[in-house]
Amino acid sequence: MNKQRINLLWFVGTLVFALVSMLIPLPAPLQPFKPYWPALFLLYWSLESADRVNLGLAFCIGLCADLLDGVLLGEQAMRLCALVFIALRFRSRLRFFPMWQQTLAVLALLLNDRILLLIVRTFAGEALPPATWWISPFVGAALWPFLFVLMDDLRMRMRIQ
Description:
Radius of gyration: 16 Å
Protein name: Rod shape-determining protein MreD
Structural class: mainly alpha
Function: Involved in formation of the rod shape of the cell. May also contribute to regulation of formation of penicillin-binding proteins.
Family: Belongs to the MreD family.
Number of strands: 0
Strand content: under 5%
Distance between the termini: 15 Å
Membrane topology: Multi-pass membrane protein
Low-confidence stretches: none
Keywords: Cell inner membrane, Cell membrane, Cell shape, Membrane, Transmembrane, Transmembrane helix
Shape: globular
Mean pLDDT: 93
């Protein structure tokens, strides 16, 4: 296999893994602790490889996530587009933040994602979620340094651009 094909397979494979990870069921008490995996992986790739990640890709990943999750069509697509737009806009700054500042920026992006989700679901007529609904962005931010280091290490070992 040539180098470009391996790079593309790794990129697509991580995004498919994020979508599949989103579908893993957890027991009801642990459900609020489930991070939003597609957002975390798209954030990683938008910081590390901005030439591959754009709003169109975020929209397609979001539509796939909507179809797999069975939620309002376009809900996750809009959220991921907003997230990737902000990440790409501030990419040059975010890449060179120390890890603790990058983690805080990821927390802010994930909280923004939750606020967008709350707005969409409120307009759709759903009731307000419980307070435990806000735990997920904090879990995602806590996992960010580990995910970033793991993905970076695997990318370097495989010599992927």
